[in-house]
Fold:
Amino acid sequence: VMVDADPENEPERKSLLRRCCRLPRLPRPRLPRLCCRRRQREPPLPFDSPSARKLRENLELSNDVLEVKEEPGHSASTSTGAEHEHDIPVTVDEGVDLERGQPSAETKVQEDNQDVDFPDFSHQDMDDLEQCQDFEIQRARVESLLPKESELALLHILQGKSAAISAISTCVAHSDFESAKQLKILRDLLAIEQTKMWGRLAKVQAIHRGCIRHRDEAIKAEDFERAKELHDLQILAEECIRRFALRGNQRGAIELDKGCISLGTAAALGLLGGSFTVECWVICEDTEGARILTAPDSVASLAVHNGCLEVKRWRGSSHFASVQFPTSCWTHVAYSWTVDGRAAQVKIFQDGMQVGNGTEERGIIIDSEVRLGPFSGKMSEFRIWDHARSPDQVETWMKQRCTGTEEGLLCCMSLLPGRGLADATLDPGSALASGHCFAERGRCLGAVTWDGDFPPDLESHSPGTQAVIALETEESLGKAWQWLEEQHQEEESQRETQSARRKLQEHSRKEEKQREEELKQKEAELRLKEEEKQQAAKEYLRRRQKVKQPLVKLMQWTCPMASFGR
Structure:
């Protein structure tokens, strides 16, 4: 590189040096600015935009009513078709100062975040229906969810599991541990099949609801071809739902291990009017933090804490039962709320006996969502009364199922497998069709399933059904044993098929190995023959050379000119 000092050639010289010597390009120094650039403001939101409307709604306050907005994931609505308004007023008791104890928005958010939010899976399959426009794929999906003839019906699964649980206790009492072991295996297998069946039924129900919604939209858009395809898919989904047929009096209970039930707002349930009573049957596996009924910022919650029943109101005191709460057995729990002037009397009941009481000061009540669960256990026969029940009434009615026509009954959910989340007060005569089509109260959040276990002390309101149910349960247990035997035979045949396949594969591998060995042996023989040929050729050349040497010497001796020509 020739360095030229001419100023006109300075850029070319630097470029040449940079390419040849690979010198790094130094960054240009930044000089401090004497003035700051003004930050550009975001354009204002249009007045009619969704964001502006939402902001105005959240900032809208009146003098007498404090409006609390529900989050989209916590909207509480029932299946009766009534749409709740978004504004939830605050109920203020008489003689209470509004300036006392008003919770801040930040505190409310922190309190709400402590609760577990379970996703709502009911719209998952409807979203899939929107994304997938191929109805043949949707039809094949629904057909894949249909119960097969070789599968045990959901009805017999629930009854067989319940009978197996009872039979295990009987076998243990008679020291028949071998039979108890076999029954335990049957119970565990039925539990697995039960979870699968409820999951398939939930998917079919979601597809059915999606078909109805999209069919109505297609009819409004006058897209009758799509409406017909959706109608055909809806009929197929209804047929699939009927295959999971359960009787209305099918015994069982709901499992809340991996989900909960949203019952709607406390005002819709009638819990803000004054006195009330909440009762249900539960079986808890964990007594350290089982949340039976929760209503943040609203009515008192019912839970099992530190081994005892606990009734606690938001920003209030806790009231505990005086006895321990049993585990792994059905227990009736209840609490009554009696309004008395500026105070409220709380009474706690366990198995029909009053085990605790207390006094709670009345304050500001904010309407909020009421949930059942989650906790590790099951629930049955949930009721809400519009008055404080006496201990005699609690003890008398705890072993009876209600029909929905009882005086003062606000909510009555039997939580039977064949009734789903049906509320008997919304459909007292059970006039709606069976097949999981009821006037339901609330919705399921998370993986909620039903179990065949039920409170043994809870009597059915239909007379003369005990013997029939016992016979049906025994029949279901027999079918469950038959299904288990068929499963064993199928597994045995599968094992035999796999064993025969393994033997065939092993035989094939041996033959392949033998062929490979024969091929290697032939290749070795060929190599040996080739080596012998090469060795014979070398020997021939060596002998020829050995014979040629004496002749050359003889020629040199006899002909003096032989060496010269050579």
Notes: Residues 67 and 89 are 6 Å apart (CA to CA). The longest strand covers residues 253-265. The chain has eleven helices and 15 strands.
